Amino acid sequence: MPHAGPPSAWHAHPTAALPAVQRGAGSLPVLLLILLGLLLYLLHSHQALIAQTRSVARLAQGAAAFEAAEAGLAWTLAQLNRPGDPQGRARDRLLVWPDRDGGASSVLPRHAAAAVACTQDDDTPGGWACHWSVNETQAAAPPEPSASADSPRSRPAWLMQLVPGPLAETLPPHRNTLTLKVTGCSHATSACGMAREEWAEAAVTPDARRHLRLTLALLGDLVLPPDAALSAGAQVSLGPGSRVVQGEPGSGAMAIEAGGNVNLSPDSRVITAPGRHHDDAVRHTQAGLQDPAPRWWRHFRASASLMRRLPSLRHVACPDGGCGAAELAQALVDGNRAVWLDGALRLDGGSWGDAERPLLLVVDGPVRLTGAVQAVGWLLADALDWRSDDPPGLPRGRWQGAISTWGDARLIGPVDLVHRPSVLARMRGGVGTWTALPGSWRDHGP
């Protein structure tokens, strides 16, 4: 039967008759799902961005802590090898030799905890403001940054501690070795020197830290002091009025040893220790003294060229006429007591060194002493000429310790050379240079 109505009505859309409010309802869930997916994607991207930002911040803080620890290693080595300091040598403030007056030297740290703590500070010379431990058991704490710093948390810091002996995994126990421990911190806060278990109890914010270790050994130190008051590679001459004293009883030392002849004036005296024969205190034509090289090695376990380069000795280039009292006094400022002079030396009287801080004086040239020179320590020189014309009744010239020459040595007039083994033993640890043992650097992580 034919359809009723116009033909256009036969092909009308099925939804054409639906109400207007129901049209497009099927697209809404799809749109919501798309929006939900976009939201989840944004949340994930934001979370990844936050994680990456935190990771970069941790890496930056870790790098700052590592660089601070490296700076602490370099600072400590530089201070240990600094010839002098107005506030006292760091070597004397950090280390102690309990058996200097006895047998073999064995260095020990003076502090049982962190001895020095430093904070980066651009207003301080050297770039680090440092606090030293107030006693030998209390640990030092990093100082607060200066007022010009951006914020306390923007300044890295480090703490330093010395312990006796080398790292167990690098070297067996050995005398005159130390382990340098440095903790670098990304921020100068109180948490820097705390153990991790103390952070929560102290309610402090932990920061990035790095623990570095390094084994130090003493190079070019006085290993074997001279066993004679006067040692000469060539000839020794004692003129009228001069005296060489063997030294302290029981030391077993000699008074004079020479690579050549020993000429004694009738008015000179060689005073031996009680119970020792005069012939045992004076030895001449000793072939082993004629070559300086083995003598350097015997005393310092180092060559003269190596000793010359040690930063722990203050080097002075003498003018054409040689050095005098002014140049020597300038070299001994700030508590320095080890000097290498390139050139001749002439001293007319004066007092140099003392029993607590004996002087090591190396002269790459001849030495001429005039008058009542008073000195405590050890003189090493190419040659020695010590003359005094002072009349009787005036103080005599007096050198306590030892004198060694590669050539001739001559003493004339009222002058005394006294061998003091206990004074020479105090020079141990004050001459050599602390150096890092190759392969001993260790990074113990955060």
From TrEMBL:
Domain of life: Bacteria
Keyword line: Membrane, Transmembrane, Transmembrane helix
Annotated TM spans: 20-43
Protein name as catalogued: PilX-like prepilin protein
Organism: Sphaerotilus mobilis
Taxonomic lineage of the native organism: Bacteria, Pseudomonadati, Pseudomonadota, Betaproteobacteria, Burkholderiales
